[in-house]
Design goal:
Elements (H helix, E strand, L loop, with lengths): L4 H12 L7 H5 L4 E5 L2 E4 L4 E4 L2 H4 L8 H13 L12 H13 L4 E7 L2 H18 L7 E5 L8 H6 L16 E4 L15 H16 L4 E6 L14 H11 L3 E5 L23 E4 L11 E6 H4 L20 H16 L2 H20 L5 E7 L2 E6 L15 H11 L2 E2 L1 E3 L2 E4 L7 H19 L2
Parallel strand pairs: 3-13, 5-6, 5-7, 7-8, 8-9
Antiparallel strand pairs: 1-2, 2-3, 4-10, 9-10, 11-12, 12-15, 14-15
Helix pairs in contact: 4-11, 5-11, 8-9, 12-14, 13-14
């Protein structure tokens, strides 16, 4: 291929398409991907790149996985579509529900399928409101979430997402959404004499009391924040569960990024032994090969759906329970289990974090390295002793990511934090390459 095909295709693309997080400059400096092999992407000019983000945390089994392609083709030739509205179902959706009941938390046994994470968040929020109305408490409608938590960008999901950059172009936001400080062990400051984990969790209690417990329906949280790699301190989730129980608030865990093995457990809340009332998932359930998400309902929540005389759940998606996506999900779970990829994520994730620490802990501008399993983040700071950030105008993080791309590695970040989310199938030699390239890129921008 010629050296300018990529640029020509991007110009063609720009005439008719608008992209997620659209920015003309960013887009025209981008890539057109024409093929994926294993954990690598190939652009239109034939250049090969390590995909250190496994797409957007979703291509957990890597590219060109034959089992998933075969499952999709077979199901398309059998039953390409069936409505998932009440009174209609299909064997693949049923099989996936049964499979998930055996994999998820023991109190979660009923599922509703969506097309992705944002739809799952909206479904969680609506389910919580439906539940409290069914329980005779219609005033409980508010959702609390974390600053720095990401739950998608559909309108309700955007209101729950705790990144203010997503808000201004679309405000006013919907009423009934409240944010509390992140438990970020690097940045969160507890009051003097207080345990940081308990103080960070007690931010939820403060918010519930400020809003009025009789108005709060739901607390939604990622077990590990994908956007930033924030891992909660020990004891945090146990206290969160206690607060939700005390004030009659549903606890929803957003496992869209963390689910299906990424953190070294099939679902991340297993690390802390805390059971949610609602859970949501997407991304890794099909390794990104087809769009599928969903929510899981605890037995307590599911009970109100089948009460005699209860109002219908007026929530629906055309592609809920799509037989082809469900077939691919079942094939994905098969591969995860047969290849022991949950255990691989735990082992490889520990190696990835150890490698990042070894390569970068001594750098004057590396403030914090964090993560769990195959979620990792490197936060860059101007002054290590004070944790002072670089001026945003310097765009240090984007410069590091651009240097990584020059060296054949694709990843993402926010501000001056560089994210890594390799596929569960990435092997040790390539993981070492990822660490080496990230370290070289930091040094190229900030010096050795």
């Amino acid at each position: 291929m010629g050296d300018n095909i990529n640029a020509e295709l991007l110009a063609r693309d720009h005439r008719h398409l608008v992209h997620s997080l659209h920015s003309e400059k960013t887009h025209l400096d981008g890539k057109v991907w024409v093929k994926g092999e294993g954990c690598e992407l190939i652009d239109a000019d034939g250049n090969r790149y390590i995909d250190a983000m496994s797409g957007l945390w979703n291509v957990t089994l890597g590219y060109s996985q034959p089992t998933l392609a075969a499952a999709a083709a077979s199901q398309m030739n059998t039953l390409a579509y069936a409505s998932g509205y009440s009174g209609s179902s299909n064997p693949q959706a049923m099989a996936l529900g049964e499979r998930l009941a055996g994999l998820t938390y023991p109190n979660v046994n009923r599922f509703f399928f969506t097309s992705g994470g944002g739809e799952s968040t909206d479904s969680t929020i609506k389910t919580a409101r439906y539940y409290w109305k069914a329980m005779g408490k219609p005033g409980k409608y508010k959702t609390i979430s974390l600053m720095g938590g990401y739950h998608g960008t559909t309108l309700a999901a955007m209101c729950a997402t705790g990144f203010p950059a997503y808000w201004p172009s679309f405000e006013p936001r919907m009423p009934g959404f409240v944010h509390i400080p992140n438990h970020d062990v690097y940045r969160y400051t507890a009051p003097p004499g207080q345990d940081p984990a308990m103080a960070a969790a007690d931010e939820l209690e403060k918010a519930i009391l400020t809003e009025g417990a009789d108005t709060v329906a739901l607390f939604i949280i990622e077990p590990v924040c994908g956007g930033g790699g924030y891992v909660p301190p020990p004891g945090y989730f146990k206290r969160i569960r206690e607060i939700c129980d005390q004030y009659d608030v549903l606890l929803a865990v957003d496992e869209v990024i963390t689910g299906f093995g990424r953190t070294g457990r099939m679902f991340a809340m297993e690390h802390w032994g805390v059971l949610p009332d609602l859970m949501q998932f997407a991304k890794g359930i099909t390794s990104g090969y087809l769009p599928l998400g969903g929510i899981g309902l605890s037995d307590k929540v599911a009970e109100v759906f089948d009460r005699e005389g209860s109002d219908p759940w007026m929530h629906c998606y055309t592609y809920s329970g799509h037989p082809v996506t469900c077939a691919v999900a079942l094939a994905t779970i098969d591969v995860i289990e047969k290849e022991n990829l949950v255990q691989a994520a735990a082992a490889n994730g520990a190696q990835l974090l150890a490698g990042l620490h070894s390569a970068l802990d001594g750098h004057a501008n590396v403030g914090h390295i964090r993560g769990l399993g195959l979620i990792a983040a490197v936060e860059l700071v101007e002054d290590k002793s004070t944790k002072a950030s670089f001026a945003a105008s310097r765009k240090i993080g984007p410069a590091v990511i651009a240097e990584a791309r020059k060296r054949g590695l694709i990843t993402r970040g926010r501000g001056d934090t560089v994210y890594l989310g390799p596929a569960l199938v990435m092997k040790e030699p390539m993981l070492k390459q990822v660490v080496e390239i990230v370290a070289e890129s930091v040094q190229a921008v900030l010096g050795a």
